[in-house]
Amino acid sequence: MDQDYERRLLRQINHQNLSERRLAKSGCASSSPLSVKSGDRFIPTRAGSNWSVNFHCANENCRSPNQNHKAKEAGSDTGKDAVAYAALLRNELLGAGIEAVADPHADGRRQALPAEGTHSLFRYTIHTKRVPCDSGNEVSPYSLSPLSNKSHKLLRSPRKPARKISKIPFKVLDAPELQDDFYLNLVDWSAGNLLSVGLGACVYLWSACTSQVTRLCDLSVDGDSVTSVCWNDRGSLVAVGTHKGYVQIWDAAGGRKLTSLEGHSARVGALAWNGDQLSSGRVILQGPGDPAEGAASSGHLTTSPPGGNDNKLLVWNSSSLLPVQQYSDHLAAVKAIAWSPHQHGLLASGGGTADRCLRFWNTLTGQALQSTDTGSQVCNLAWSKHANELVSTHGYSQNQILVWKYPSLTQVAKLTGHSYRVLYLAVSPDGEAIVTGAGDETLRFWNVFSKTRCTKESKSVLNLFTRIR
């Protein structure tokens, strides 16, 4: 080798080594291209990526706020479609072998797809593991579909139809002189499909089958007015509470008064039947709290001085003059109370404007179970006869109707339309529909517990209950 060339080459190598040592001392050796040993390709790490979320966010950025709002409203209906589509992609791209997906909205909680391993999506090597012919994932060579057998089973898996509750009432009736009073109970639905409504000094009966209206009684001749109505279990008798403190029993079929009971010194705001036994007071509900003892619950609104609120919920039985249980968790008047028809001893209650909470109690043990803040005054509660759900009506300040799933306490539906507090609530005898009343002098009928409608909609022949268009 030429000596001159050798000297130049050694000088270049020494200069390069000196540069590397200087970079190492300054902490920049890792950034030197000479110190990094890499292949000819760059493979990004996507193990922590969530393509569904990223794709959704990208679409949201391209849409207007109004389009995003509509998409979120439709999300509840298309949630299972999105989960099924994601499972289909996993089957075809990753060989996940998913044959069925769960309802993403079951019990108010989204069901996530089973997570794959945390291995990288892209690899240098290719898996050559053959799928056994008897695994059910083998695709017939004569099949015209590009999908695997697992994906076909996924697409053929039975789907529970999405539940939809109409946000508008299927009937609206005019109810003049329906009072805007939180402590009254002026609407009740009988087992014979008759609706009793107290309007001013009169009680009217409206047939859900024929839409005919009859006047049952008129208390104006006695200078009195109606403060509560309640049907007995068979739907043959109507108890009527009055402003002067009387309790009248009327025969609905014959349209005649059977008896008038005295004893109250103030208006009778609530009535409740338990067989042939009738309870009356300010707010009281008899029901299956303990059938052996005939338990009743009372939202205790008055103390010794009439009109005082103590915000207590009391549970009584027929064998004692004193309440057997007392709950003091509510911070406002307790009018909304309802016994569960599905769980023995379960009682639900709702507080007024200063409380706004739904609370649930185990009256067999005296234990407070759970509660939730509804955001507005709770006026009424009613349980579904067929499902473990309940409906609540509200006043200040949203005047809404909420359908809840128990025990998750997730909202199934929110219904609006009343312009005043929704003070009155009754459930149809088949347990599918409800009627609500408010100080806006309207009665609104909603299908909340079933999609089917049991009665044919027809127009009333009287001006008293004319449909509002």
Automatic annotation (TrEMBL):
Positions of the Anaphase-promoting complex subunit 4-like WD40 domain: 221-274
GO-annotated cellular components: anaphase-promoting complex
Name of the protein in its database record: Anaphase-promoting complex subunit 4 WD40 domain-containing protein
Native source organism of the sequence: Anguilla anguilla
Any Gene Ontology biological process: anaphase-promoting complex-dependent catabolic process
InterPro entries, A to Z: Apc4-like_WD40_dom, Cdc20/Fizzy, WD40/YVTN_repeat-like_dom_sf, WD40_CDC20-Fz, WD40_repeat_CS, WD40_repeat_dom_sf, WD40_rpt
GO function term, MF aspect, one: ubiquitin ligase activator activity
Database matches in PROSITE patterns: WD_REPEATS_1, WD_REPEATS_2, WD_REPEATS_REGION
The keyword Metal-binding is annotated on this UniProt entry: no
Domain CDC20/Fizzy WD40 per the UniProt entry, residue ranges: 307-446
Family statement drawn from the similarity comment of this UniProt entry: Belongs to the WD repeat CDC20/Fizzy family.
WD repeats: 219-260, 415-448
Top-level taxon in the UniProt lineage: Eukaryota
Keywords: Repeat, WD repeat
PANTHER family membership: CELL DIVISION CYCLE 20 CDC20 FIZZY -RELATED, FIZZY-RELATED PROTEIN HOMOLOG ISOFORM X1
Pfam families, alphabetized: ANAPC4_WD40 (PF12894), WD40_CDC20-Fz (PF24807)
